[in-house]
Q: What sequence folds into this?
């Protein structure tokens, strides 16, 4: 009976340690994804560039014409570098989900003229989180 009890206690301790390790690991990954997203949300050209993988895509429906747009990420980054967006807006992570080496986030950006929702897909590439695709919607206020 003592042997069974001891095995049960040891198994419980082992499971607790393993679950603590997994929880700590996922908190670390959550923080790494948030850091990537914060680079994007900063509006600073160099930090925005750091957030995206070089082959990332950006697609959206133009709010004025209703046309589908597919913009090379290098063009988007060049626009941000030419016109930094660091003031006059409220930015927040609405939701985020991290599973293994993939993550998804919804970001709300509010300016005086519009509300935008960005939907980001991220992958952990060579140990670093990068945005690999962005779609968004824009609504006039």
A:
């Amino acid at each position: 009976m003592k042997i069974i009890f001891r095995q049960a206690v040891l198994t419980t301790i082992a499971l607790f340690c393993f679950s603590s390790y997994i929880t700590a690991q996922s908190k670390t990954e959550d923080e790494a994804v948030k850091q990537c997203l914060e680079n994007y949300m900063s509006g600073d050209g160099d930090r925005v560039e750091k957030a995206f993988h070089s082959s990332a895509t950006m697609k959206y429906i133009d709010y004025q014409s209703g046309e589908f747009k597919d913009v090379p990420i290098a063009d988007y980054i060049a626009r941000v570098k030419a016109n930094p967006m660091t003031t006059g807006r409220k930015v927040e992570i609405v939701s985020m989900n991290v599973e293994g080496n993939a993550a998804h986030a919804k970001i709300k950006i509010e300016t005086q003229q519009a509300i935008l929702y960005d939907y980001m897909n991220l992958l952990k590439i060579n140990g670093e989180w990068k945005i690999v695709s962005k779609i968004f919607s824009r609504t006039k206020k």
User: Anything to note?
Assistant: The radius of gyration is 21 Å. The chain has one domain: 2-140.
